[in-house]
Amino acid sequence: MTVETAEARLKRMKMRSWRRGTKEMDLVLGPWADAHLADLSPERLDLYDRLLTENDQDLMAWILGTAPAPGHLAGFLDEISAYARDRLRRE
């Protein structure tokens, strides 16, 4: 069994953030990952890694607030959503 290095893990997670399957989620998660992944604690990295396993339709509904997010992801998704909103306002 190969152990993933911290550097390889961040690279994988960034790639997965930018290549979701829907362009909308690429544009939400990709910039957030570029800006924040390197500074996350190990526990928050684990949570983000779990978030990346969710399907795009669910993630989009949770981020837009059209469906309630699971409790363990709710606060994290609120942060990601706020970042995306702020980013869009600046552009």
Structural account:
- With 91 residues, the protein is mainly alpha-helical.
- The protein contains 5 helices and no strands.
- It has helices spanning 6-18, 23-36, 42-51, 56-64, 71-90.
- Helix 2 (23-36) packs across helix 5 and helix 4 crosses helix 5 (71-90).
- The longest helix has 20 residues, at 71-90.
- It starts with 5 loop residues before the first helix and ends with a helix.
Provide the gyration radius in Å: 13 Å
- Beta-strand content bin: under 5%
Low-confidence stretches: none
The helix/strand order is HHHHH
Q: What is the mean predicted local confidence, pLDDT?
A: 94
Separation of the first and last Cα atoms: 45 Å
Shape: globular
Tell how many strands the DSSP assignment holds.
0
Question: Helix segment count?
Answer: 5
Estimate the helix proportion, in percent: over 70%
Largest sheet: none
- Helix and strand content put the structural class at mainly alpha
List its traits.
mainly alpha, 91 residues, globular
SSE topology sketch:
Elements: H1 6-18, H2 23-36, H3 42-51, H4 56-64, H5 71-90
Helix pairs in contact: 1-2, 2-5, 4-5
Brief account:
The protein is an all-alpha fold and 91 residues long.
